[in-house]
Write a structure and sequence with these properties.
alpha+beta
Length: 226
């Protein structure tokens, strides 16, 4: 949002969230209006959707817990994302969680990821609702080029003096405390060894055998850890 606000000139308004809400799935389009979305024609709104590698996304949730409520009895900071209960050894028992306040329960954190991005794919395929999916990693490492493509996608023009956002776009208070700025994010996501931090062998096996995950990873050109 901040990159486009600073670097993209368009005939229209760039919004920081969808008119049906930032943490509301696209299936709520035309059904829900966020406080900042009043007066906006949702049929004329073209969303940019940010997607992240599921393994690094789960690690991000472990660091900040933003929007996710674990079963408190099962939450373990030393073993997160905790897809499979560590204290149950004779079988693979998943750890349910709730995505966002008032949201639905999912079998694991990975299944919450699958549901969220799966809804975007379903809306695109079955309801012909267009959107531009942007991989976080591409934006991080190729910010200027990705921003140019996104800007031109909606008929805009990129500024000649491109401005990078060095601080965390989410701020550093509340659930965003400790969020990464540009340099910290480049170091963190440029190190492949941190991708699988906290995953047990059973967590990885569960992820590898998850068909919904495989479908999304193929759609967004992510690869499984070796």
């Amino acid at each position: 949002y901040q990159l486009l606000t600073d670097n993209c000139h368009i005939d229209g308004k760039i919004l920081w969230q969808a008119p049906w809400g930032k943490h509301s799935p696209p299936s709520n389009r035309l059904k829900r209006v966020a406080p900042t979305g009043k007066g906006i024609n949702q049929t004329e709104f073209f969303p940019f959707m940010m997607v992240k590698d599921p393994f690094t996304w789960m690690n991000s949730q472990c660091r900040h817990g933003y929007g996710v409520t674990f079963w408190k009895s099962e939450y373990d900071e030393e073993h997160c994302p905790n897809l499979i209960r560590e204290n149950v050894r004779d079988r693979d028992e998943t750890v349910p969680l709730k995505l966002f306040n008032g949201g639905k329960f999912h079998d694991t954190l990975l299944d919450a990821y699958n549901w969220w991005y799966g809804v975007w794919e379903e809306e695109r395929i079955t309801k012909f609702f267009p959107h531009l999916a942007i991989r976080y990693e591409d934006l991080l490492f190729h910010g200027q080029e990705v921003s140019r493509i996104a800007c031109e996608c909606v008929g805009g023009n990129v500024t000649t003096n491109f401005h990078f956002e060095s601080e965390s776009a989410k701020g550093d208070s509340g659930p965003h405390e400790g969020s990464s700025g540009l340099v910290k994010a480049l170091i963190q996501y440029g190190n492949p060894t941190t991708r699988m931090s906290g995953f047990s062998d059973r967590d990885v096996r569960y992820a590898r055998n998850n068909n919904a995950t495989a479908k999304l990873m193929k759609e967004y050109a992510y690869s499984y850890p070796v």
